[in-house]
Amino acid sequence: MRNVTILLLALAACTRADQQASDMPDTGAPGAAALMASDVSGSWTGTTMAEGSDSVVGRWTTTQVTDSTSIVVFEGSPDTVRSRVTFEADSMIVASDPYTARALPGSPQVRFRSIGRLSAGRLVGTSTLMLAANQDSVIRRSRWEASRAP
Q1: Which of 9, 65, 91, 132 has a CA positioned 20 to 30 A from the CA of residue 35?
Q2: CA-to-CA distance for 149 and 134, rounded, in angstroms?
Q3: CB of 51 closer than 8 Å to CB of 141
Q4: Distance CA 89, CA 106 (A)
């Protein structure tokens, strides 16, 4: 009986440690270099692919304006989308201001949130497009990749 009690206590301790570890933010791979604004300065051209597919759903160019802001121009759209950029560990997090998604039926006001990393000289990441008025209403999840503009 004593062995069973010790085993249960050990399992409970491991479970609490696992829960605490999963509550901590992911700071990237151990030893990964911190991503900084200077690493992604300038202009980048990219493509967005539907989640789980290689089908390209958008092409765009982004330009870093300051260390914490950028602009995005989607192919075929005259609009410039402003966004805020933050850096955490080996990742950058980009959140756009609301904009009109002319490619979607009804041209709704939307915003995107994206997370990316620098990998072999390219930026790669994932993105979520949602209605601007209700960020719980996800329109599309996608992945993207970009390379420095010439």
Answers
A1: 132
A2: 33
A3: yes
A4: 38
> Distance from first CA to last CA of the chain, Å, rounded?
71
Q: What is the pLDDT of residue 18?
A: 45
Is the pLDDT score of 6 beyond 90?
no
Please check the confidence at residue 4 and state whether its pLDDT lies above 60.
Answer: no
Cα separation, 69 vs 84, in Å, equals 5
Exposure b/e, 131-143, CB count within 10 A at least 16 = b = bbeeeeeeebebb
37-89 pLDDT tens trace = 999 999 999 999 999 999 999 999 999 999 999 999 999 888 899 999 999 99
Q: Which are the contacts of 65, defined by CB distance < 8 A and separation ≥ 6?
A: 71
The predicted pLDDT at position 113 comes to: 97
Q: Which of 90, 80, 147, 136 is nearest to 113 (CA)?
A: 136
Non-local CB neighbours of 78 within 8 Å, separated by 6+ positions: none
The pTM of this model reads: 0.74
Instruction: Evaluate whether 8 touches 1 at the Cβ level (below 8 Å).
Output: no
